[in-house]
Design goal:
CATH superfamily: P-loop containing nucleotide triphosphate hydrolases
Number of helices: 8
Shape: globular
Structural class: alpha/beta
CATH topology: Rossmann fold
Order of helices and strands: EHEHEEHEHHEHEHH
Number of strands: 7
Oligomer: single chain
Radius of gyration: 16 Å
Number of domains: 1
Largest sheet: 7 strands, parallel
CATH class: Alpha Beta
Strand content: 15-25%
CATH architecture: 3-Layer(aba) Sandwich
């Protein structure tokens, strides 16, 4: 089983959107997939419940922060995505990465989000598992608007950070609409949807290296 932790020091960065779409990608690829929701709001759990009747369901579970967060997953689970709580603390991240194979951090292209994330990156880099450079960490720029100076400057700044920027996901209302019905952009094959799926390709390629 491969377990991917999605975490961010700041709420509103699209963490749950990333977690649900990643889980749906694995499920539509035919892998038994679980989504553990560690956030009190339960947004990922509600999404999984709405998806239950689809041909590629995702098992939603409520989870508590700790190294045994995946302990109750059913046998045969191939992929697990952990949606951590908003504003997670570095100590909680340290516990969760004991159960994970990689950490993905979504960051919005705004000064406020960048400043909060950079402080988080500095703490993260000092965790023993990461300081030894053995635990994979990736950054994704989320809700980007590539034609704006704000996004371009944010991308340049993120590329100077301690962890690789592996993907840039463009802003789209489609994510919001699909989340409301338990679906993802990987459930569709229109030209417009494929365009946004291409944004995910670098992240999926990076995660593939874990296999």
């Amino acid at each position: 089983m491969r377990t991917i932790l999605i975490a961010s020091p700041k709420g509103g960065c699209g963490k749950t959107t990333v977690a649900t779409n990643l889980a749906a990608f694995y499920a539509t690829a035919g892998k038994e997939t679980a989504l553990i929701d560690c956030d009190r709001q339960g947004s990922s759990l509600h999404w999984a419940e709405k998806r239950a009747a689809l041909a590629s369901p995702v098992l939603g579970m409520q989870g508590r922060v700790g190294p045994k967060v995946t302990a109750k997953l059913p046998e045969g689970t191939k992929r697990c995505v952990i949606d951590s709580a908003a504003g997670i603390r570095i100590g909680e991240v340290a516990e969760l990465i004991e159960a994970a194979d990689a950490l993905v951090i979504p960051v919005l292209p705004s000064v406020i989000d960048l400043e909060a994330s950079e402080a988080f990156f500095a703490e993260l880099a000092e965790l023993p598992a990461i300081k030894r450079r053995k635990f994979p960490v990736a950054i994704i720029a989320n809700r980007t608007k590539p034609w704006t100076n704000a996004t371009q400057m944010a991308i340049a700044r993120l590329k100077e950070g301690p962890f690789p920027l592996v993907a840039e996901l463009r802003d789209s209302q489609g994510y919001v609409l699909l989340a409301g019905i338990g679906k993802s952009l990987f459930d569709y094959h229109s030209e417009q949807t494929r365009s946004h799926q291409d944004d995910w390709a670098p992240l999926l390629k990076w995660l593939k290296k874990l296999d």
